[in-house]
Design the sequence.
């Protein structure tokens, strides 16, 4: 029978949470993914502004959606004033 | 990021600060309004901030141990205690020589309207030097969508499956009765207004109360992509006024003179599917009457 | 300096001497004088801490949670219904490993309404992870608060100093009030190692998983055991600085006692007088005073009590349908011995009824002469 043995000197007293949650790649959640039409995009950054995942990065003045984290909520598609973003099926889901 | 050409660094102008206090990879549902609310609050409050969070969605959204989803510290506390715990944190920090760090309660409507209202009222009554933020998703969402004092009339929840029979508690009026220096409303559909208010409260001493209407896709039964649209519609139909009350003086921060019909807001939310035409008409009348008051006071 | 102080004021004076940073409390009879004197000390500048006049006891402990997390030395006081109201928070503060110190003034719990002393309120909190120290005099109240800070801060376990409502809280006794500079020597400023640092991004008490949770509770247990040694060390130093010696159990004439009483709180000092009388009458009587209830001084008891002795535990508390709580815990602590003394339980003074010298002598005789019950507690009532 496995006994719980602790070394009181070494065992943590409390758990401090300081590991950035970014180790958790939430891109696996989505079933649809956003696609930005770069021709139409005017770099207004409204998609960046409204992303609840905070996963739109601004690369040289252009919004780039980080697919490691995007959950496919479709807010960006909804808020884009020029309709540059379209949600398409995630491959294989 | 597949470009091979050297792109020139273009200066980017955004209407809200670019620095993020929110980390990707958090556990919020797709389209979470409470998450957007934190994103904007972080931009307004800055890093010299400690959050105090009772039982609510953010208990989990802060990141289960040992992970953290924000760039500032956060103390988790029992459900009824947020305002009392925060009062203690502030007193503790000040006693150790830190008078600058803002102590901010970040609580859902459950821990604010209901089980937490005693501590909230007590802290406001003492004019504790803390910021109290209620992200209001209008039900106990973290436990699976049960009715709270913040649930609107006729809304479906798991404990009001025939539609809630009581009106939403007017918490803003309750807070107005506490003689506090600042209270405000905001919602993620208007990030500039929200960031401005969170920046402003840093310079005010005493009890500051901010209620943030936070749409919730699973709880309100709306498409996840509609969170921002609903947040905007809440304001544009007059269902949720954006205002500030500073030292007792009321001021609308967004005047909505030509309001959209309330049904524009309701029809996107399947929690209101049980509403009859006369219910909607009653709601519309209620809003119109309330706005007569708002405009008079502003 | 010698002063005549009521028990409640002895507590407040100790809190001021301990330089508590943050006090948060809600009034309840018979605790009110504790916080009233603290308010006076603050108003007159004699105590420089912050007093949060919270709106309930649950919030009082919540404010202590917040302040202690920020690294402050904290204090609250309550009793009976108020202590019960903060029950959830007692568990939380202990699990969060915060060295909060409080006093509980023993008062029975309703229903029906009841004002006078009984230990069921504090003993009902025995599973929360708080240490508990029981006092028999106002001097002990003052000294125990200072000791509590010292032991709590060395073990990161919160501590409750417990004393009888009215009998001690409202009774005036001469108390030696130590000098501030000597207290500063015994109690340096608190350096809480897990204090919230706003410059770091950290969450405290976020959702844990079962295995790490259990390991943290095992660590807490190790620290609770260690607290017995920490108490000894602290008590040694206390004696060197202040000249008074405290032990987790205090045997009085137990060495050659054939039958002895086990008592706690104010009753322990009455029991001493009862033992003196019994001895004068030629009986081999003793009294074992229980000071620490948590950590439970099991090893000390197993060492002190002899298999041939008869032990009469006097409980001014009760766990319905079972035993008085000190008796139950004693039986459990001695169970593992191959040879153990006979333990008899007596319930007396619930709701504050007097426990007189005569009653204690009666209990002693019942036990010594074989009329007590080995299985179930015997309920006693003052004859007057």
Sequence:
């Amino acid at each position: 029978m496995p006994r719980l043995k602790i070394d009181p000197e070494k065992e943590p007293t409390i758990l401090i949470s300081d590991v950035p949650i970014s180790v958790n790649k939430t891109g696996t959640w989505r079933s649809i993914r956003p696609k930005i039409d770069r021709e139409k995009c005017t770099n207004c950054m409204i998609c960046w502004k409204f992303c609840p995942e905070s996963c739109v990065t601004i690369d040289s003045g252009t919004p780039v959606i980080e697919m490691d984290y995007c959950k496919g909520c479709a807010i960006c598609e909804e808020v884009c004033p020029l309709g540059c973003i379209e949600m398409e099926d995630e491959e294989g889901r | 990021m597949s470009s091979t050409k050297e792109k020139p660094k273009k200066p980017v102008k955004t209407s809200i600060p670019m620095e993020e206090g929110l980390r990707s990879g958090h556990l919020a549902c797709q389209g979470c309004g409470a998450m957007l609310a934190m994103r904007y609050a972080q931009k307004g409050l800055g890093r010299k901030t400690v959050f105090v969070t009772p039982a609510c969605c953010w208990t989990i959204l802060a990141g289960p141990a040992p992970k953290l989803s924000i760039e500032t510290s956060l103390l988790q506390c029992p459900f009824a205690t947020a305002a009392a715990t925060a009062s203690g944190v502030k007193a503790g920090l000040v006693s150790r020589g830190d008078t600058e760090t803002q102590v901010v309660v970040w609580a859902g409507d459950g821990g604010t309207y209901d089980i937490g209202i005693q501590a909230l009222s007590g802290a406001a009554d003492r004019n504790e030097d803390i910021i109290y933020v209620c992200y209001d998703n209008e039900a106990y969402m973290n436990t699976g969508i049960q009715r709270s004092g913040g649930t609107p009339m006729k809304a479906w929840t798991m404990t009001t499956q025939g539609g809630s029979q009581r009106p939403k508690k007017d918490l803003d009026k309750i807070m107005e009765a506490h003689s506090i220096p600042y209270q405000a409303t905001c919602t993620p559909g208007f990030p500039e207004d929200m960031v401005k208010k969170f920046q402003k409260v840093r310079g005010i001493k005493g009890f500051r109360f901010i209620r943030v209407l936070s749409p919730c896709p699973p709880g309100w039964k709306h498409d996840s992509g509609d969170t921002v649209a609903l947040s905007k519609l809440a304001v544009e139909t007059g269902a949720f006024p954006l205002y500030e009350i500073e030292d007792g003086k009321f001021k609308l921060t967004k005047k909505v003179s030509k309001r959209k019909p309330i049904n524009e807001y309701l029809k996107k939310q399947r929690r209101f599917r049980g509403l009859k035409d006369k219910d909607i008409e009653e709601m519309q009348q209620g809003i119109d009457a309330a706005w007569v008051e708002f405009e008079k006071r502003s | 300096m010698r002063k005549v102080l009521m028990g409640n004021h002895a507590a407040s004076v100790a809190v001021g001497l301990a330089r508590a940073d943050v006090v948060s409390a809600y009034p309840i009879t018979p605790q009110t004088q504790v916080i009233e004197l603290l308010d006076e000390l603050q108003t007159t500048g004699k105590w420089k801490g912050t007093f949060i006049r919270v709106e309930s006891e649950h919030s009082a402990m919540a404010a202590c949670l917040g302040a202690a997390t920020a690294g402050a030395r904290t204090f609250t006081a309550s009793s009976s219904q108020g202590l019960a109201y903060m029950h959830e928070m007692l568990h939380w503060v202990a699990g969060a490993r915060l060295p909060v110190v409080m006093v509980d003034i023993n008062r029975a719990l309703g229903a029906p309404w009841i004002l006078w002393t009984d230990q069921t309120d504090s003993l009902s909190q025995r599973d929360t992870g708080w240490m508990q120290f029981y006092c028999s005099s106002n001097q002990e109240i003052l000294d125990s608060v200072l000791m509590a800070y010292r032991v709590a801060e060395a073990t990161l376990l919160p501590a409750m100093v417990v004393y009888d409502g009215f009998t001690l809280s409202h009774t005036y006794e001469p108390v030696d009030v130590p000098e501030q500079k000597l207290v500063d020597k015994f109690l340096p400023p608190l350096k809480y190692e897990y204090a919230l640092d706003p410059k770091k991004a950290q969450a405290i008490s976020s959702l844990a998983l079962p295995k790490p949770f259990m390991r943290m509770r095992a660590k807490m247990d190790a620290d609770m055991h260690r607290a017995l040694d920490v108490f000894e060390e602290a008590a040694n130093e206390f004696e060197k600085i202040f000249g008074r010696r405290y032990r987790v159990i205090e045997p009085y004439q137990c060495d050659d006692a054939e039958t002895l009483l086990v008592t706690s709180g104010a009753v322990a000092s009455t029991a001493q007088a009862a033992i003196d009388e019994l001895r004068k009458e030629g009986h081999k009587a003793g009294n074992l005073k229980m000071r620490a209830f948590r950590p439970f001084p099991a090893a000390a008891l197993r060492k002190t009590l002899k298999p041939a002795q008869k032990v009469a535990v006097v409980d001014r508390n009760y766990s319905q349908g079972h035993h008085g709580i000190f008796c139950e815990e004693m039986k459990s602590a001695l169970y593992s011995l191959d040879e153990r003394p006979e333990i008899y339980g007596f319930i007396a003074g619930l709701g504050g009824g007097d426990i007189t010298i005569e009653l204690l002598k009666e209990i002693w005789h019942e036990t010594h002469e074989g009329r007590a019950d080995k299985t179930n507690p015997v309920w006693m009532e003052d004859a007057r």
